[in-house]
Amino acid sequence: MVVFFNIISYIYKAEKTPLTLNDMQQEQFVVLAEYNTLAEAEITKSILQSAGLWVDIRNEYMSSLNPISGAARVVVRSEDKAEAETLLKQR
User: Fold this and answer.
1) DSSP string over 45-91
2) With 45 labelled, which of 21, 52, 82, 87 sits at a CA distance of 20 to 30 A?
3) pLDDT digits 0-9 by tens, 22-56
4) Do the Cβ atoms of 73 and 50 come closer than 8 Å?
């Protein structure tokens, strides 16, 4: 079920090339930033998605329930990390 939602939430880059499940499993993802509140993570996600980057928030439910237990992590593809950091610095 989780895999299904990950596929649905995948945001394609400008070329809109369809990706298979195997392609997504081979992707390398890195943590771009950690936030104490889900609202901050959602703002960052929105900025990066509007630029056409794939973005996900990990640990979002735990950070909402108990901010001390863990931060909401904004995750991007490793190949998009430099571009994502540049976009966030311009903000």
Assistant:
1) HHHHHHTT--EEEESHHHHHH-TTT-PEEEEEEGGGHHHHHHHHHH-
2) 21
3) 656 667 899 999 988 888 999 999 999 999 999 99
4) no
Q: Tokens at residue 76, please?
A: 């991007």
pLDDT in tens, 68-86: 667 889 999 999 999 999 9
Domains of the chain, by residue range, sit at 2-90
Contact 72, 57 (CB under 8 A): yes
Give the C-alpha separation, 32 to 41, whole Å. 10
Hey, what are 27's tokens?
């992707």
CB–CB of 41/31 below 8 Å?
no
59 and 70 Cβ atoms separated by less than 8 Å = yes
Q: Among residues 76, 82, 74, 83, which one has the least CA distance to residue 39?
A: 74
